[in-house]
Specification:
By secondary structure, this protein is mainly alpha-helical. It is built from 7 helices and 3 strands; from the N terminus they run H-H-H-H-H-E-E-E-H-H. The protein binds manganese (III) ion (MN3).
């Protein structure tokens, strides 16, 4: 088995984590997310999280076979030095969060094969039940993303009890840290939108719904 092929969710098995290839071209999300932002975001920002995660995990060979999601869930109880715990939280979170982010988006223009929605009827039903309607969900999620002070993410995540919840996290904190499973994540770090939208985060959020595959 090739040790460099990550499992779904950005995990590695018995080896180093690698940058997962984007499932579309850098310009595929134009005009909503520009190609230059996508390229920098993927090849520089995400790559750096992967490299730094690998750097710190080298010190803990016993964790080499543990899926990253599980490391996150157990982070507080694993025998890891304090500084390394913070590094794994940041860079492991960055790797997991971005790996999901690329997967849930898809081409916006017909020339790139989009808009190809991968809607999940069961999820839509659950969201509707939880929020009243898809529109209400989008409104609440967008508000949560806009209200995150500084850098972070907005999430739709599933709690351990099965309930869906909308919230945001700071920095690269992963929902797995609180034993939740992320379903939809939106990166609201400035590096995700600054070239095209500058300080106008709400405009980026509004545009982003066009490239989210999971919902109509
Ligand atoms: Mn990012």
């Amino acid at each position: 088995m090739n040790k460099n092929i990550p499992a779904k969710g950005g995990s590695a098995s018995g080896g180093k984590h690698i940058l997962p290839p984007l499932p579309y071209a850098y310009d595929a999300l134009e005009p909503y997310i520009d190609a230059r932002t996508m390229e920098l975001h993927h090849t520089k920002h995400h790559q750096t999280y992967v490299d730094k995660l690998n750097g710190v995990l080298e010190k803990y060979p016993k964790l080499a076979d543990m899926p990253l999601e599980e490391i996150m869930r157990k982070l507080d109880s694993l025998p890891i030095e304090t500084a390394d715990r913070a590094a794994i939280k940041n860079h492991g979170g960055g790797h997991l969060n971005h790996s999901l982010f690329w997967q849930i988006m898809g081409p916006a223009s017909p020339s790139q094969g989009g808009p190809k929605k991968a809607t999940d009827e069961k999820l839509i039903e659950e969201i509707t039940k939880t929020c009243g309607s898809l529109e209400e969900f989008k409104k609440k999620f967008s508000e949560t993303a806009a209200a995150r002070f500084g850098s972070g993410w907005a999430w739709l995540a599933r709690k351990a009890n099965g309930q869906l919840e909308i919230y945001s996290t700071q920095n690269q904190d992963s929902p797995y840290l609180t034993n939740d499973t992320p379903i939809i994540g939106l990166d609201v770090w400035e590096h995700a939108y600054y070239l095209k939208y500058q300080n106008k985060r709400p405009d980026y959020i509004e545009a982003w719904w066009n490239v989210l595959k999971l919902l109509p």
